Amino acid sequence: MLSSLRRTLVSVFHTDLKELYTILERAAPFSAWKTLTITSCCQARLAQMPLHPLGRFTNLEALSLDTLDNPLVPILNNSITNSLKWFQYSSQSCTVDGEQFTLALSNILSRMKNQLCLPNSPMTGLQLPPNVTDLRVIGDIISAEFPHILALTIMLSSPSTLSALPIYFPNLQKLTLIEIYPMPSLSYSVVLPHLESLTVHYMTCTSLKALVAPQLQGLFMLEQKMEPLEATPLPLLFSQLAPQKEFSINSPLSITTLKGLLSCYGK
Asked: What per-residue string of b and e applies to 154-168 under the rule 16 or more CB within 10 Å gives b?
């Protein structure tokens, strides 16, 4: 029944807007929706529909937006409840006004329980409420201080990313780095005093050697870039970071590297 309804919605959306509204009003009011993705390409048609009679998104659990200029955004912000678990904002514009973002989505942000995903566009003037403790960023880090962020995921960021972490996220406990662009050796250490878990994807050991995490409990290296002539061998990185409880690597290891790791455990 659900798959049939989805096919019907896709069909009438491109042919008969009035019929689409009738179907939504009778069979799928907003209060029944669990997930919603809104793209900028549909905002012109949505502007033609009387949306308020369709109700409120009181049971929405997952939401994805790529624009604030959509007639559904005020309805969403005013009706979202504590059911919301996941929110992604993926604007494609060059820059995003952080103050406008915070104001337009104030209620949504205040309901966040799990991860907040932000776009690959720098945000100026962004403020996040203290209930947002888990953040995912694509691209450069937002230039603002967030002491309440405890878990951070960074994808496809610039080399300056690691050096900025202690300034913008001083209380990080969990950090995931995914394919940070090659970073030259830093002449100073990047100290993360509260970090307990570090997960890295597609990064070399050399790009991580500046990190210092005295409270690190777990180090997880997934799809690792293993360079035979790398300046910082894996055993040296392991010895430096010294995870106290867990270590996992999902890459082939040479006998020499394996022996080096095992010797670290014996220390």
From this structure: bbebeeebbebbbeb
DSSP letters along 117-156, please?
A: EE-SS-EES----TT--EEEEESSPPSS--TT--EEEEES
Element (H, E) at 72: helix 72-79
DSSP, res 180: P
Rg (CA), the chain: 23
Task: Please give the angle made by the CA atoms of 71, 80 and 43, to the nearest 5 degrees.
Answer: 20
What are the tens digits of pLDDT across the range 154-202? Answer: 887 766 777 888 989 999 999 998 876 655 566 678 899 999 999 988 7
Do 161 and 141 touch, CB atoms closer than 8 A? yes
How much is the pTM?
Answer: 0.76
Tens of pLDDT, residue by residue over 211-265, are 899 999 998 987 655 555 454 577 777 777 888 888 887 766 667 766 777 776 6
